[in-house]
Amino acid sequence: MDNVFQFRDQLIEHYGSFSRSFVRIATPDIQAEVEHLAARFFRLSTAILKMLKLAKGCGNPDFSMCG
Questions:
Q1: What's the rounded mean pLDDT across residues 8-28?
Q2: Among candidates 41, 42, 38, 36, which has minimal Cα distance to 11?
Q3: If you average pLDDT over residues 22-34, what whole number do you get?
Q4: Residue 30: partners with Cβ closer than 8 Å, 6 or more residues away
Q5: Does pLDDT of 21 surpass 60?
Q6: Mean pLDDT, the chain, integer
Q7: pLDDT of the residue at 62
Q8: What pLDDT is attached to residue 29?
Q9: Burial call 35-51: b when 16+ CB within 10 Å, e when fewer
Q10: Residue 65 in contact with residue 8, Cβ under 8 Å?
Q11: First-residue to last-residue Cα distance in the chain
Q12: CA torsion sign, 11 to 15 to 21 to 25?
């Protein structure tokens, strides 16, 4: 692990895999849509966190040098 951001990304990826392990969708088209929506949700979550940090007054959206 090189930095905390890489750790965060790995943690989100592992949690996604963990949460998807509880559901097995047999229909390929529905499975593809679920995967697409899950990926979109995680990207949206990251974007929202960055916006909140910027709104708090931190000028660096990747969280480095922010309190």
A1: 82
A2: 42
A3: 85
A4: none
A5: yes
A6: 75
A7: 55
A8: 92
A9: eeeeeeeeeeeeeeeee
A10: no
A11: 22
A12: negative
Structure tokens at 18: 């963990």
- CA dist 49 and 55 (Å) reads 10
Q: For residue 7, what are its two tokens?
A: 């750790």
Q: What is the pLDDT of residue 13?
A: 81
Please identify which residue in the block is written with the tokens 């929202």: 48
The predicted structure's pLDDT at residue 20 = 75
CB 25 within 8 A of CB 31: yes
Cα atoms found within 13 Å of the Cα of residue 42, Cβ hemisphere only:
16
As to burial, measured by CB atoms within 10 angstroms (0-12 exposed, 13-18 middle, 19+ buried), residue 34 is middle
